[in-house]
Amino acid sequence: MITIPRVITPELQQRWDPTGRWVGIAGGVALAVSALLPWAYSFAALDGMTLVGNPSPLQYCGMVLGLLVSGLIICSRLIKPRGKIRVGWVRGAKAAGTGALVYIAIIIVAIALELGGLINVVYGGWIALLGAVLAFAGTRLMIMDKPATLSQAQTRPTLEILLVAVVMGAALIATAYALNIDDGGSFVSFIAFLGAFVAVLFRVGAMGFLSGVSQRHRKVLILAAFVVAFLFPFTQGGSDANMSIATQVIIFAAAAMGLNITVGLAGLLDLGYIAFLGAGAFTAAVLSRSAFATADIHPPFIVVVLIAGAVSATLGLIIGSPTLRVSGDYLAIVTLAFGEIFRITMINLDGEAGPNITHGSNGIPAIPDLTLFGFDFGRPHVLLGIPLGRFSNYYFLLLVLIAFVILVFVRLNNSRIGRGWVAIREDEKAAEAMGVNVFGLKLFAFASGAFLAGIAGAVKAHQDISVTPDQFIFLESAFLLAAIVLGGMGTVLGVLVGATLLKLLPEKLRFVSDFRLMIFALLLILMMRFRPEGMIPSQRRQLEFHEEDEELAERIEEEVEETGALRGAGVL
Amino acid sequence: MDILQQLINGLSLGALYALIAVGYTVVYGIIQLINFAHGEIFMIGAFGALTAWILLPGDSLGIWQLPIMLVVGMVAAVGTSLLTERFAYRPLRNAPRLAPLITAIGVSVFLQEFVRLFYGRIPGFPDARRAIPFPQINYVTGPAIQLGPITIQRAALFTMVALVICWVFLYVFVNRTRMGRAMQATSQDPDTARLMGINVDRIIMVAFALGAALAAVAGLAWGLRYTNIDFRMGFLAGLKAFTAAVLGGIGNINGAVVGGLVLGLVEGMATLIPGTFGGSAWKDVWAFVLLILVLVFRPQGLLGSRVVDRA
Amino acid sequence: MRTAVDASGVSAQADGSPILVAENVTMRFGGLVAVDSVNLNVSRGEIMGLIGPNGAGKTTFFNCLTGLYLPTAGSVIFEGALLPPKPRKVVIAGMARTFQNIRLFGNMTALENVMVGRYCRTNTGPLTSILRGPKFHRDEKATSARAQELLDFVGLGNTTDNLARHLSYGDQRRLEIARALGTDPKLLLLDEPTAGMNPQETRQAEDLIFKIRDQGLAVVVIEHDMRFIFNLCDRVLCLVQGKTLIEGTPTEVQSDPRVIEAYIGTGPENAAELEAFEEEGQGNA
Q1: pTM of the model
Q2: Has the ipTM of the complex gone over 0.90?
Q3: How many angstroms separate the CA of residue C226 from the nearest CA in chain A?
């Protein structure tokens, strides 16, 4: 491996730290001020950055980053640490500096690409770049401080709850905004901003603080999350377009969460998981009232969901029983093979190569919308004065579904069963020798994941209107796995973020749609190389992937002593 | 005589699987990695051969081009394989098993997309988004040979002969050369092998190269037999080949060959099953069912696996 | 003060009734006979020592007893019933073990390690875990309380939240014992518990094993430290090259010249060690 020699040595930092601070502050201010100036020559670039004194949203983001840099540097000097509470001012400033540079660089490149040449970047943009460069350089010269320890910090409960509400609200606004961005360049820039912002929060220690807050006010947090999620369709102003994407994202996330039990908790590599989703979907399709449905029974939807789950779980038991006894690598290939068996079988059950159950590669189209307790999911409704279309209806149902899946996931993880799974991941033979029912637990994980996929599939069938075998190819299993692996194994938030990004990015980045698979592949390779535990991993997984990192282990142990448990499948 | 015909067909298909399976088994035997991307190496070998033919002057189908196509195909496959080993897999040597496996999936998708998107952009080369016709070289393709009631395609014969030659070469290499013995030692115990002065990194590279070379032969054979190649050909063939390797006993080179032939035969016979669940629509299913049965009743494979359980 | 033994499990009497009877246990690996017709009788409340030079087959024998290996011949009868050769069933029947190379769950805390030991004695199922009724909370509290109790018992009470991989070597060995005790065993098999320990830690280990015996458990210990074995054990079995050399009280075994020869040899270069060994024996007689 190539090691990059450290350009800025600690000795250098000792000498230049004061200068670095001033440079950093200056850079941040410059960047913030530049937001009021035009950045691009034409209004068509990104989100319209040509006005003086009237910053576009993306310019505001730049201003935020600039203010963060300067503000954090100033605070690092003015605010002294109190007791054991340490805020990572300098760390945060450094992250902000780097983030600002990356952000402005992306914006400048985007403007150049969209308008055809760097010449189209106007003086404001260059000042922004200068500011960002100064911020970056300045913060690089600063001496690093110790990591933040805000997880024990507390303030008045009312304030904390307010904080939770504010954070949730901000998340809602950011998501609604991001979903409404049409321009690819703007979308990438905004995501870069979000990434930089979150990174700063992490380094400053705000995430540690938030995680402490969330542990203390768990119920408030969950309630807030659901309120926010519930409110989301109302922010769309009657448009159903984004809701369609949102429903796709949630189904995908629900399936990924189910897979997270198999892969993330029990450590079983399932490469044919999409088959379980497909089994659920086809079961629901066959039992539906579609003109093409091949069965004559039409049970109520609740029953169909349970049947679909049972069918998938049974399939899981059938494949799992023989193969979970053998090594994990074989399991991967066998599950992959089974995924193919499923797909081929679905194609072959077309009346010629086999009994007609699925109409072969045409699948079962025209699946009618759900009607639950008189509520027709297909027709738009008006709630609180805002029209909600078909996809919004399904969205609400899916919220219930994913809430259920998350509940199952979290509760299983923090239980005797969850401990058993960790033990199996650590040392299977030792676990067996201590009385853990290794085979039983593996089979249970496998079948549970399958069950959850089955019920998700049942909803998917009605939402997608048609079910065809080619919706369930291996690549989809790979995407589901990637959602978990990239997002963060073993955590709820990680999987949600991973699933959202993987489903959302192809929609928003249509200008690279030809290359999206290649980008996906590169992402997998790079992530596994540099951050195999994912973006938002559980602490335990971090330990598992970085066995030799003693510093990490000590840091985590400190946290465990303070908070009483390894940060695992909680929300953060 | 349908049965005999299918037997021959099965053997020739099996020979293809065998050639690809060796690559899986050798790499798994040494570093316990399922090289997901090996199927794509097979595909690249085929594309390499095609490239050679395109670059050679004229549009002829002369047999003299065959060795050149073979060599270029091998170079392409071996080169790609070594690059992936060096940059994708080697840094993950000590990581938990999940990481290299995911990486391998990434490499597999990457190689597929790379070929699909960029092959056609090189001036003079056909667009790889669709299947590309493969040159039907004289003597190794053409009118089938009649042996009594059985028809043998020339390309099928070519494949089987290629397998035999490769197998002989493998046997000599693994059992009679220093490098081969070093490979055996490394596959049994890399740490001790290292202590004995064996350059384990280099052995691993040799393993990858070996598998890639054979996969390239298979790629060329496939192109001759099935008359066209496309960027997706590696997926199913790779999966079947790994099945074959497991069937024969993972880590065991002879096992890979035997497994491949058996798998091909099973597929051939499966097409003869009358009625439902028979015929060519279901043959793949039967192949995979065989895999599951083997894992249940004889996980060490037909010839016994050579991977030591490092408990 | 609660005892370290579950009320429904072992009775605290060292009544001398047999708890483990291994008859003619043989283990063959291809042509190699690692264990050759070894017999072992362990009574309740007894501490049994298992000695022998390296490679004598002691750990292999343990593996046969605990179901890790299926013996080529012979039978293992535990509490009057034939033992199924599955590690999990063996543990449920009441026989727990530690390992020669420590096999803790490194990335779990000390408490969590012991809680895993409680797995087979609890039955909180998936439905209970999902619904989180009163039973779930009762079970979790009981499990973690018991685990803490066991940590205190072995002297690791203040390492509750330390990652197992961070504990000192001696502490790790004790944690392994605590974890094994979590399964409420009636017979504890310890594989070289004092390997790598200094004399002080060894004495602590001795005290701990006596404490365990006082709870009513029987213990079988594989060891190389002679003084430790002779201080600790009621009876000693000596294996050489897979076969039983001698079985008897510590005095009987240590004064048997064959044992001395098996370990040390009788040549002139070993004279000094020989003397030390004999002196040691006389001191303990």
Answers
A1: 0.84
A2: no
A3: 28
